[in-house]
Amino acid sequence: MPLMPPRHDGGDGRDLEANPIFSREPVRVPRYALPARETAPDVAYQMIHDELMLDGNARLNLATFVTTWAEPRARALMAECAAKNMIDKDEYPQTAELEERCVRMLARLWHAERPHEVMGCSTTGSSEAAMLAGLALKRRWQHRRRAEGAPEGRPNLVMGINVQVCWEKFADYFEVEPRYVPMEGDRYHLSPETAVERCDENTIGVVAVLGSTFDGSYEPVAGIAAALDDLRARTGLDVPVHVDGASGAMIAPFLDPDLEWDFRLPRVASINTSGHKYGLVMPGVGWALWRDAGALPDDLVFHVNYLGGDMPTFALNFSRPGAQVVAQYYNFLRLGFEGYRRVQRTCRDVATRLAGEIAGLGPFELITDGGEAPVFAFRVREEAAGFGVFDVSGALRERGWLVPAYTFPENRTDLEVLRIVVRNGFSHDLADLLLDDLRRILPRLERQPGPRRGARDAGVFAHGAETRHPRRPGRG
């Protein structure tokens, strides 16, 4: 059969062509329509494999918080459990049991006074967990307002403008007014004073972030809780706190044990974290925990039979594999407290050393140093007039490094930064290679008459550091 030239299909692009050296028929398949016939498995694999070579190298992706490396035994367990549907707890009771064990382990890790009374579940990630936590806050507020005979039509949620975009989605999807606290000067996240200023009788809760996606910093959860305690003493307003610990809730317990941010604070009603971030699991799994049944209204919970008993479930998603939950339990069992402490300590050590080395190069100024979450942001000094952060990001991408550059939100849109996320598997050796490449590109960038790249050239991989769009008064 003679080979035909590539065919264009009127706008959808060329068909996919199979290399005749390693392929069998068909030699051409459509890109955007189902093929008319079957494709040999080796041919289908090779076509897809070749296209995926154009993706970035996940290990060199310093933008994402998501785990990009796992032990072979963890991968094997995930493969064995890929076909198990997490929602079918009566059909896969032992997978459900491992999920329950993980919840109890996290409850103890986060200092729940009565771990056996904590309500919790796995999710597809922190975004779903945040949605669930927000829904619980809203429903609790609605119940209280109804009991008081008060209107319940204008709920609001107070949070820093640095929150992850999932909170913006929650507010939009579930009709809650987001009350964002803008950045001011050198304050890049929520403070106790700014949180309390925006609370009123319609506030369903305050979101405190442990590990801001913009710069890796912890918000002062204890200070926010204390300010809300004072607000209640003065006004009677009782506003709960949800801790978005997508990153920090799996770091602080191991590296900052004296930091009070969790269920030790009575005002903290719920906590979420990402198992697929510093929980060290491949994506996607998250966790949502509530202090007790009172923090999670029962009318949001569904009950299923499980090992002859009752297991409450609360989730937005239905069918999903049990693989990630099993991998989470494997990591808890495999590493234990000391193993997690060593992994997170290494990440922080790499982050703080790398931050210090970058600061020592001259053109850069640190915003944070990686001393809380192992994440740090830095900017180009004003005197380095020949280039900006977007030039640096673009030049590093030539070597395969994915380092996001972005602009901070209101009221610091003047601040353009680069951010580096250090995860398990990003070693001191890799940090040295990154430094070598930074040193290599700087002379070329410094010879430029001015910045050549801007925000429009930056791509869309800020991974949580997208600019919020506060709603104008009267818009919802």
TrEMBL record:
Compositionally biased spans, kind Basic and acidic residues? 1-17
Cofactor(s) required for function per UniProt:
pyridoxal 5'-phosphate
A GO biological process of this protein is:
L-glutamate catabolic process
Query: Its Enzyme Commission number?
Result: 4.1.1.15
Gene Ontology MF, one: aromatic-L-amino-acid decarboxylase activity
User: Which chemical reaction does it catalyze?
Assistant: L-glutamate + H(+) = 4-aminobutanoate + CO2
Q: What name is this protein filed under?
A: Glutamate decarboxylase
A single Gene Ontology CC term: cytosol
Keywords noted in UniProt? Decarboxylase, Lyase, Pyridoxal phosphate
User: Where N6-(pyridoxal phosphate)lysine occurs along the chain?
Assistant: K277
Q: Where is this region: Disordered?
A: 1-20, 448-476
Question: What protein family does this chain belong to?
Answer: Belongs to the group II decarboxylase family.
Q: Which InterPro entries match?
A: Glutamate_decarboxylase, PyrdxlP-dep_de-COase, PyrdxlP-dep_Trfase, PyrdxlP-dep_Trfase_major
Gene3D superfamilies hit by this protein: 3.90.1150.160, 4.10.280.50, Type I PLP-dependent aspartate aminotransferase-like (Major domain)
- The organism is Actinomadura viridis
